[in-house]
Design goal:
The chain folds into two domains: 41 residues, no CATH class; 97 residues, Orthogonal Bundle (NinB fold), CATH 1.10.3790.10. Strand 3 and strand 4 form a beta hairpin. The strands form two sheets. Strands 1-2 form a two-stranded antiparallel sheet. It has a two-stranded antiparallel ribbon with strand order 3-4. The model has no long low-confidence stretch (mean pLDDT 88). The radius of gyration is 20 Å and the shape is extended. It is α+β, with helices and mostly antiparallel strands.
């Protein structure tokens, strides 16, 4: 059975080399010698932009009034609320057949860089409107 773990490779000439020690271990442990693997080209999102997004949410949550703090006690709650409000949702089905709308994921392997950038700009604009200030204006340049 194939591993569910994604393995990243880097191109070196005509060869694909595991991108990290962890990737090499997964390759060795999960796939037989000579196994045929499918590869997909990805353009990873900047971890700096991802950190910038989460830093803004953290700033917002730390400065919430009591009412907002009850609704969104953690940055993850605010993250899901923004995703849902901005239409980044998926439908799952309950056992009784009723649909349930859930926030989609911004995980690197789920949302392309261009889609994340559009989402980030929309989230920043919406949160600025809701709060009356831009929480990202208080984020250090390191996370920008």
């Amino acid at each position: 059975m194939a591993s569910k773990n994604k393995i990243q490779f880097r191109r070196h000439g005509d060869a694909l080399i595991p991108a990290s020690i962890d990737d090499a271990v997964l390759l060795r442990d999960d796939y037989a010698e000579g196994a045929l693997l499918d590869a997909a080209l990805t353009h990873p999102r900047s971890t700096k932009r991802n950190a910038h997004y989460w830093a803004g949410l953290t700033t917002a949550v730390k400065n919430f009034d009591d009412d907002l703090a009850r609704k969104y006690p953690k940055k993850e709650n605010l993250h899901r609320a923004l995703l849902t409000y901005l239409g980044h949702t998926t439908t799952t089905w309950q056992f009784d057949g009723t649909p349930r709308i859930e926030a989609d994921s911004t995980a690197f392997d789920n949302m392309k860089t261009a889609d994340f950038e559009r989402y980030l700009e929309s989230a920043k604009a919406q949160l600025t409107i809701w709060l009356g200030y831009d929480p990202w204006a208080y984020v250090s340049e390191i996370a920008a």
